[in-house]
Amino acid sequence: MKTPLLAFNEKGIYCAQADVYLDPWKPVKKAIISHGHADHARWGHQKYITHNSNVPIIKHRLGDIEVSGKEWNETFTINGVKFSLHPAGHIIGSSQIRVEYKGEVWVFTGDYKTEDDGVAVPYEPVKCHTFITECTFGLPAFKWTPQEHVMRDINTWWQQNKDDGKTSVLFGYSLGKAQRLLKHLDTSIGSIYTHGAIENMTEVLRPQVDFPETTRITKETKKEEIKGNIVLAPPSAHGSTWIRKMVPYVTASASGWMTFRGARRRRAIDKGFVLSDHCDWQGLLEAIKETGCEKVICTHGYTDIFSRFLREQGYDARTEDTQYEGETGQLESENEKESA
User: Running DSSP on this structure, what letter comes out for residue 327?
Assistant: First the structure.
């Protein structure tokens, strides 16, 4: 039986011919990293390879690591296997990893979305024979509203809260979602304040993106100066003592999971905005079609349902277990859960 170009084992997605792993979840000698979220970029590998724009992100999160950066579409060869990185559109620096050997091409998406968010380099389809796709939102119930409409609703919500004399506290992951929200907030309404974890990551990314001005909330920040403005905070800040400084406040969360009202209730959030850095159902199907692939491997998310649907459409589709967690796996690492 022919050995597959990429195989799933206890450490991650392995290319035996090149002796390299893609987004491994256990320490390995050499790892190609798709993006900076904690479930894909883990500490402990001897050597990291990633896109240049992701280098400062993983250095910030992982510390003193040996990492080399690549440009988009730059081919690098390891033991005869050709690798290249292509925009995934998920967050800043997120890549699809193309692997080619003896005319056979596989593409590993990591996490991706097909909508251009105005921050990350937009997703580009890559032709391949086998496509490894996430299925975080692989159900027909997930259908995203265009970002322009969602951000208009968020800015309207902020303005209404300001008119009511309340502070708007908007929760989003410190890497990716927070910067996407920040980029499109209407600063004519007021000022933007940030939790320390979000401010730290935004400072890392400012050399790459023109973001609006933000103010870090510290112990010296007065409640009166925040009132009526908007605060960007990670989900971990909800229910913490840190948030008491915002009283009176109204909370909201920006996430694909806000599709379900029950998710908002469970998180005790006042308002939910459906905004995801992953593909919706239709986005997944369109992305797969554009690759021209014959085989699809479904990972993390609604894998069984999605792969069954793909088989009904004529694809050779199956599932594989990973330790990626999609939108539930983007919570801040411990050293970013700051109180200020």
Answer: G
Secondary structure E strands in the chain: 7-8, 13-15, 20-22, 30-32, 47-51, 67-70, 76-78, 81-87, 95-101, 104-108, 130-135, 167-171, 192-194, 215-216, 230-233, 249-254, 271-273, 295-301, 316-319
Rounded distance between C-alpha atoms, residue 19 and residue 50, angstroms: 16
What tokens were used for 185?
């907030």
- CB contact at 8 A, 105 and 127: yes
CB 26 within 8 A of CB 11: yes
Distance of alpha carbon 91 from alpha carbon 275, whole angstroms: 13
Among 81, 66, 103, 65, CA closest to 19: 81
Q: Please give the domain boundaries of the chain with CATH numbers for all domains.
A: 7-141+277-336 (3.60.15.10), 147-273 (3.40.50.10890)
* Spatial CA neighbour of 124 closest among 85, 78, 81: 85
The pLDDT tens digits for 248-263 are 999 999 999 999 877 6
Q: How far apart are CA 45 and CA 33, in angstroms?
A: 11
**CA–CA dist 162, 11 (Å, integer):** 49
Checking if the pLDDT of 55 tops 60, the result is yes
pLDDT at 239: 85
